Amino acid sequence: MMGRMRYIIIGAGAVGGAIGGRLHEAGHEVVLVARGAHYAELRDGGLRLRTPDASLTLPIPAADRPEAVELRQDDVLVLAVKTQDTVAALESWAGRPVAGGGTAGERLPLLCAQNGVVNERLALRRFRYVYGVCVWLPAQFLAPGVITAPCAPLTGMLHIGRFPDGTDEVARRVAADLETAYFLAPVAGDVMRWKYAKLLSNLANAVEAITGSASEPGSAELAARARAEGVAVLRAAGIAFASEEEQAALRGERMRMRPVPGGDPAHGSSWQSLRRGAGSIEADYLNGEIVQLGRLHGVETPVNELLQRTANRFAREGRAPGSLAAAELR
């Protein structure tokens, strides 16, 4: 890849918007891809990025479909949609022509900056150069055009590596750009080991979405049981994952939640999906990943099955987040 890289953020919600906003602020070229009212706000008023230290309005180019972006050989595609939307996004971008010849799927690197562990495998069917990104980036997207990123002094930690393993010059260059933009960005030859660790922590997303909290006593106990099932399943499957101590040691004091002026209390991505009335939730690829692996390897996963089923029902019925107490969850 020649020249300075341009970042095409496919799905400029909480994670994608925070990454794109910080990269743009640091002087990198970015295009945000979004839909509907969010796209209209980005197009007309720019991205409003709220952090503990500043409230920024960033005039970042925006697009609402692949056809609105003329792809170049120095582009990096950053996939930041929820996993339930991954296949549609891959299908719409893989065949897009790139200036100088070839298609996006043949020529351009695709970074999966997403929760869960199936996106990279889905991408590899359509893209030759696939990278995993383990996303530790608390951020909120509750109103069109507005992203809140409450961590400081660094906005997040983003491990990046080739899928299924290894590193290369693209990963190192992307990491170097991210580290100019308020991110810790380790280049990891074993990036999926970090993503499986993140999967374990994301099992609590459904608990928070359903009960409104993952830290109150009843909810915390439910989240701990879901994680214990996840650990048992990964061990039975022979899948390695980074320890909580490794993760905490890297983050250190560099990522601390701080109040954001005018911001809402921090909530996870599944809670946000219910709050926005998105109509879908990623539980099938978080709790459901543990359920599937448990069935493959003979490990019972009743708590994750219950959370997956209930979270999907909440999304389907348009239920508000936090509308069922942990004690009532059956």
From TrEMBL:
Which domain of life does the protein's organism represent? Bacteria
What SUPFAM superfamilies has UniProt attached to this entry? Answer: 6-phosphogluconate dehydrogenase C-terminal domain-like, NAD(P)-binding Rossmann-fold domains
Pfam families, per database record: ApbA (PF02558), ApbA_C (PF08546)
All residue ranges annotated as the Ketopantoate reductase N-terminal domain in the record: 8-147
What's in the GO CC field? cytoplasm
Coiled coil (UniProt feature) = none
Q: Which Gene3D superfamilies match?
A: N-(1-d-carboxylethyl)-l-norvaline Dehydrogenase, domain 2 (1.10.1040.10), NAD(P)-binding Rossmann-like Domain (3.40.50.720)
Q: Which InterPro entries match?
A: 6-PGluconate_DH-like_C_sf, 6PGD_dom2, KPA_reductase, KPR-Related, KPR_N, NAD(P)-bd_dom_sf
Q: Where is the Ketopantoate reductase C-terminal domain?
A: 190-310
PANTHER family, per the entry:
2-DEHYDROPANTOATE 2-REDUCTASE (PTHR21708:SF26), PROBABLE 2-DEHYDROPANTOATE 2-REDUCTASE (PTHR21708)
Q: What is the protein named?
A: 2-dehydropantoate 2-reductase
What organism, scientifically named, is this protein from? Streptomyces harbinensis
